[in-house]
Specification:
alpha+beta, two-stranded antiparallel ribbon, two-stranded antiparallel sheet, 4 strands, elongated
Length: 115
């Protein structure tokens, strides 16, 4: 659901680069979906699990995230070969285009109850 579609592949590369960055500092960007199973493993009665995505657009917190992230890291990410040279500019155009939309990073919340 990335609009305009011409930036979708660059957007995916940026997401993969951000995910690799999280892993490089010891964070697990795929931890959230495992939360319900971990609650069950502790003996908790699984309550609920929710995954929340918002739609990014110009001026949104998601727009600021990509703008600042790429400003700080784009040269290193291109040099490392995880982004194409044109990707930062494409994403920059996307975050400033009032017609653009893209999904945010997902946030997982889970809770349970002791039996």
């Amino acid at each position: 659901m990335v609009h305009p579609r011409r930036v979708a592949e660059a957007f995916i590369r940026v997401l993969e680069a951000v995910s690799a960055g999280f892993r490089a500092v010891g964070a697990d960007p795929r931890f959230g979906p495992r939360l319900p199973g971990l609650l069950i493993d502790t003996g908790a009665d699984p309550g609920r699990c929710c995954v929340c995505f918002s739609v990014g657009h110009r001026g949104s917190p998601e727009s600021e995230f990509y703008t600042f992230t790429l400003a700080e890291l784009s040269e290193r990410l291109v040099a490392a070969g995880v982004l194409a040279a044109a990707d930062p500019d494409l994403i920059g155009e996307m975050t400033m285009n009032p017609e653009s939309q893209w999904p945010s990073l997902g946030m997982v919340s889970a809770w349970g109850y002791r039996k």
